[in-house]
Amino acid sequence: MPTKLICCLSLPPATISSVPIYDFAEANEGLTTEPMEGYYPCCGKSICHECIHSFQYSGNVKCPFCNSDRGGILVEDAIKDIRKRVESNDAASIYVLGSYYYHGQLSLQQGVSGFPQDLAKATELYIRAADLGNSQAHCQLGDIYHKGGDLKKAKFHYEAAAMAGHEVARITLGSLEFNSGNMERTVKHWTIAASAGDYLAMHNLRVFFEDGDVSRDTIDSTLDAYNKSCVEMRSKERDVYIRFVIDRLVLMNLKI
């Protein structure tokens, strides 16, 4: 499952003389921040949003994992489900609860006083989830410590997340190395992320190539690996969802 929806979009193949200039991020800017993961609090499992969209379009409102009915579920009941999962030491649910405190989510929805923004509580939950091996929690802790100026702790958590396959953490590590002047390590991090199908990493490498900081062989081989990863992530249902999101973004912009 890709981290962001834009990672499902592949670039045209490289040519002998130059990399393609068509920029999907520019054409579909909203997709660069559109998350792909949907969380089910009933059983603590996650699924990609295009599958959820397909289920809802077909009228299926049950959880695909535990088959519980999710139609019309109240926020209060969802919170109870999450807390049960947290009490059972479920890493994904602990991370989700931490994110609710980090962003102050679900407040005042359906008359329920959700979660006030509480960075200390969020950090505590992220640490707990990271100790259980959750890569998203590691990445979020990296962001928190990075913003707080503790680069040593930030790199530790970014590295833990990257080793677990978290492409966003891998890209951030590349940026940190770039800021330190370590171009070789920067390219290495971004090449790994791009080969796994991450658009932003591929985009960064293309910019570096145009500036003469990445070789033709590296950009060709990475583009090939990137496109193959994108193909593996593509599906008819996912393409339908991409079109749905793009249409929704267009309507939102028209309303603005």
Task: Record the SSE blueprint.
Elements: H1 24-27, E1 37-40, E2 45-48, H2 49-57, H3 75-87, H4 91-103, E3 107-109, E4 112-113, H5 119-131, H6 135-147, H7 151-163, H8 167-179, H9 183-195, H10 199-210, H11 216-233, H12 236-255
Antiparallel strand pairs: 1-2, 3-4
Helix pairs in contact: 2-12, 3-4, 4-5, 5-6, 6-7, 7-8, 8-9, 9-10, 9-11, 10-11
What features would you highlight for this structure?
globular; two-stranded antiparallel ribbon; 12 helices; mainly alpha; Serine Threonine Protein Phosphatase 5, Tetratricopeptide repeat; 256 residues; 4 strands
Task: Give a written overview of the molecule.
A hairpin with a 2-residue loop joins β3 and β4. Helices cover 60% and strands 5% of the residues. The two termini are 31 Å apart. It has 12 helices and 4 strands, in the order αββαααββαααααααα. With 256 residues, it is mainly alpha-helical. The chain has a two-stranded antiparallel ribbon with strand order 1-2. It has a two-stranded antiparallel sheet with strand order 3-4.
Calculate Rg over CA atoms.
20 Å
Q: What would the principal axes of the Cα set say about the shape?
A: globular
Spatial gap, N to C terminus:
31 Å
- CATH-level-2 architecture: Alpha Horseshoe
Highest-level CATH class: Mainly Alpha
Could you tell me the mean pLDDT?
A: 84
What order do the SSEs take from the amino end to the carboxyl end, as H and E?
HEEHHHEEHHHHHHHH
Work out the number of β strands: 4
Instruction: Estimate the helix proportion, in percent.
Output: 55-70%
Number of helices, where a helix is a run of at least 4 consecutive DSSP H or I residues = 12
What does the main sheet amount to? 2 strands, antiparallel
Q: How are the strands ordered across the major sheet? A: 1-2
Give the full name of the CATH homologous superfamily.
Tetratricopeptide repeat domain
Question: What percentage of the residues does DSSP assign to strands (E)?
Answer: 5-15%
- The overall number of domains is 1
Low-confidence stretches: none
User: Which structural class should the secondary elements be placed in?
Assistant: mainly alpha
CATH topology label: Serine Threonine Protein Phosphatase 5, Tetratricopeptide repeat
